[in-house]
Amino acid sequence: xxxxxxxxxxxxxxxxxxxxxxxxxxxxxxxxxxxxxxxxxxxxxxxxxxxxxxxxxxxxxxxxxxxxxxxxxxxxxxxxxxxxxxxxxxxxxxxxxxxxxxxxxxxxxxxxxxxxxxxxxxxxxxxxxxxxxxxxxxxxxxxxxxxxxxxxxxxxxxxxxxxxxxxxxxxxxxxxxxxxxxxxxxxxxxxxxxxxxxxxxxxxxxxxxxxxxxxxxxxxxxxxxxxxxxxxxxxx
Length: 236
What we know:
Shape: globular
Number of strands: 12
Strand order of the largest sheet: 2-1-3-4-5-10
Number of helices: 8
Strand content: 15-25%
Largest sheet: 6 strands, parallel
Structural class: alpha/beta
């Protein structure tokens, strides 16, 4: 049985990956056990479990405003942290799978394909693209640009004018487990639809909100981050 090391062990996505796993021996350390912002911490944990694959899902994520207010933490965790993971995987010759995001795309006119030009429209997107840059330098790797939402949907309202490939974390976890042997870049998500359409299927009482309702300085103003998922479907 292959061994899978997963960063961000305390996160909701990782808990779902552990729940649906049937093929791997999984090590899922918390940040206290393996801090990706510290190369030595990553290196020592790798030595302790000798993984075949490193699934780097740990990240500084939501709410998006955190990346505006704390750019130092965004850089430290998502860019430097990912670089440390890449360096450690190179050192120990370990396959690396990096969970990226649809926010690396411009968000203007989807659906975006894996080889389309990238231009993040949020600080979070830039931090994840910074991580991608390091991963791209390592051939023994896979980048999954995923559109993930917590279940149940954590907000009282959903956007009626933002189109995405949203999937709940339990569904994305199953796809991730089936793509770990692939290489390159793969868009991961469901069929493109507005956030309101997606959430309403599971929660008919969800309220409506538009990007025009947001403050003028909000980063969430782009309306179409949808991705082409033809490659993902072919691989699955």
